[in-house]
Amino acid sequence: MLNKYDIIIVGAGHAGCEAAHCAATMGSKVLLLTMNMNTIAQMSCNPAMGGVAKGQILREIDALGGGSGIVSDKSAIQFRMLNKSKGPAMWSPRTQNDRQLFSTEWRLLLERNTNVDFWQDMCSGIIVENDVVIGVKTSLGIEIFSKTVVLTNGTFLNGLIHLGEKQFGGGRAAERASIGITEQLVELGFESGRMKTGTPPRVDGRTLNYALMEEQKGDDPPYKFSFSDTKPLENQRSCFITYTNTNTHEALKKGFDRSPMFNGSINSTGPRYCPSIEDKINRFADRDRHQIFVEPEGWDTIEIYVNGFSTSLPEEIQLEAMKTIPGFENVKMFRPGYAIEYDYFPPTQLKHSLETKKIKNLYFAGQINGTTGYEEAACQGLMAGINASLNVQQKKPFHLTRSDAYIGVLIDDLITKGTDEPYRMFTSRAEYRILLRQDNADIRLTPLGFDLGLASENRLEKVEKKAEGTKAFKKELKKISIAPSEINPFLESIGSAPITQKVKISSIITRPKVSLENLLEHSLEAKEKANKASMAHDEILSQVEIQMKYEGYIEREQDQAEKMNRLEGVKIPTELNFKKLNSLSTEAKEKLTAIRPITIGQASRVSGVSPSDVSVLLIYMGR
Cα–Cα 20 to 30 A to 421, which of 6, 220, 451, 578? Predict the structure, then answer.
């Protein structure tokens, strides 16, 4: 008989691993229940972490004390900072990873935590008494009891794989689907839906001609994800870029009548921003080529991930079409791409803590909530793990606002607006993205992680030193002026107007093409201040430059965030009957009754609630 646990986590994907790591670090006794111990933290799709907006999420997870950033660094084979040509709010870190090493490092991280136990079995249902979850049932007929349960089932809930005209049950290639949980939750009153995702073929790298492709090297020097003492890469593997062409498109079209996307086999919604190759050439018929990223699967493997070629067409069509792509003329395929349909539960059925509204002590995280992507899943796992642990400790739930973190934006979007297609994070979803940069995630969140018992004291000291150093050096720089003779030759060399008298460095740094490094080179006083104060640390210099260069924008966003946070502070009584407020629109009554927002700020973001409806609520509450 297994012991009773504080938390049972069902599923050991990115959400499950992060939930287990965080809850156990906070002192909870955790059982991680997985169908296969050999696929813990499996990278089911592309072997990469981060990217636009996703990189910001990963740095936030790390800043709070999560494990994804550390594991990403330890398994990285390439590092790149995306969008460097744009402003710092858009800079997004990304690693290419060794698929096997990533899984190994996650398992090692979990195994080192004595609060984590493992059990290999399929969860067939949850045990509920009086609308409170008290444990789970497994396919072996075992009942395991706990104070809380976190479901992170990924694509396994009634998973159905499509490959051409073939269909077979499974949550991932060669792995069976999870049956029974959806049916039970629906019986308990939950609403469920179906979504779709897909994956491209994997091919033999020895059969590719890289000379016909564009090489994509990593950054030199490379940086890393984690704010901890993980080591940056010393060596990196290149990725490559090639393109489809009209011959590719014609070869693919030959299989459209056998495509599950077009013959009615698949009716569920797939990711809007990561469509299959057949969907691309159908929707964008005017384009004669699409980008293909050729990504190695690890250090010591010849396997290649064909990013951009996600498909569920018959395998012979996949191979024929790939052979028309430059560099793929002699390609050999290891396994074909496929599409997978799975169950999810609209996330408006959750609280901010990710606890379900219908069943107490039950939490959902990851693709079960309608999201797509490793990073989106991981941050939900982190938040569910934190809140399940706080629940066990009989403490208040922890949540992040939209001005705190991208994680706060994601969860607020899910529970307030819901989603009927796989939700993916973008920088455009965050209204305070100048505040929520990847470079300051530690300053924003590590103190919170420390208070939770996740981030170490050493981490906190390091962050405090960075914040204090930034503040002090910025204050010193604002006092310094620079003479025309010092700076004009440089300004003229970059096509910027010369100055006619001494001006503050803070006014020069706001100009395009001017960096803090440039100013330190041309101002002896500024350079001496930096050296004397021992503040010439790369991270501090970067913080000072960003804060001075974008000071006006940052202050404006902070003001906007403070105004919105005042509405977040106005609580809506839990017993309020929205249908009795006659001045509310009919749509607002329906939506507010269904979602039950807990603050005026959250109510204002519910789809269908107008500014006049918000005014009605404020008046009712004496505001």
Answer: 578
Closest CA to 239 of 188, 194, 277, 293: 293
Instruction: Give the mean pLDDT of 161-190.
Output: 93
CATH number of the domain that residue 613 is part of: 1.10.150.570
For residues 335 and 371, give the distance between their C-alpha atoms in angstroms, rounded to a whole number: 26
Bridge pairing between strands 239-243 and 214-216: antiparallel
Amino acid 92: pLDDT? 97
575 and 611 inside one domain: yes
Token pair 């900072």 is found at: 81
Would 283 be classed as within a structural domain?
yes
pLDDT (average), residues 578-601: 92
Burial class (CB in 10 A: 0-12, 13-18, 19+), 211: exposed
Could you give the CA distance from residue 473 to residue 489 in angstroms, rounded to a whole number? 26
According to DSSP, residue 177 is labeled P
Give Cα separations from 472 to 169, 469, 477, 492, 529 (angstroms): 60, 5, 9, 31, 11
What range does the domain containing 228 cover?
Answer: 202-341
In this structure, the answer to whether residues 503 and 576 fall within a common structural domain is: no
pTM of the model: 0.94
Same domain, 544 and 574: no
CATH number at residue 308: 2.40.30.260
Bridge-based pairing of strands 5-10 and 30-34 is parallel
Q: What is the pLDDT of residue 277?
A: 94
User: What's the pLDDT tens digit per position in 367-376?
Assistant: 999 999 999 9
- For residues 575 and 529, state if they share a domain: no
Query: Does residue 317 lie within any of the structural domains?
Result: yes
Domain C-terminal end among 321, 341, 361: 341
Average the pLDDT over 567-592 and give the result: 91
225 with 316, same domain: the answer is yes
The distance in angstroms from the start CA to the end CA of the chain is 56
What count of other Cβ atoms lies within 10 Å of the Cβ of residue 351? 16
Whether residue 53 lies inside any domain: the answer is no
* CA-based nearest residue to 31, from 128, 149, 129: 149
Q: Which residues contact 411 (CB under 8 A, 6 or more apart)?
A: 352, 354, 380, 383, 399, 400
> How far is the C-alpha of 483 from the C-alpha of 481, rounded, in Å?
7
Whether 511 and 582 share a structural domain: no
H/E stretch holding 323 reads none
Which of 530, 555, 580 is the last residue in one of the domains? Answer: 555
Which whole number is the average pLDDT over 489-512? 94
Q: What is the pLDDT of residues 218-270, one digit of tens each?
A: 999 999 999 999 999 999 999 999 999 999 999 999 999 998 888 888 878 88
* 469, 526: one domain: yes
Tokens standing for residue 358:
């219908």
Over range 32-38, report the average pLDDT: 97
- CATH of residue 471: 1.10.10.1800
Position 211 pLDDT exceeds 60: yes
CA distance 334 to 394: 51
Residue 145 falls in which region: left (phi positive, over 0), alpha (psi -120 to 50) or beta: beta
576 and 502 in a common domain: no
pLDDT tens profile 299-323: 999 999 999 999 999 999 999 999 9
> Would residue 303 count as lying in a domain?
yes
User: What's the domain count of the chain?
Assistant: 3
- CA dist., res. 453 & res. 3, Å (int): 25
User: How does the average pLDDT of the chain come out, rounded?
Assistant: 94
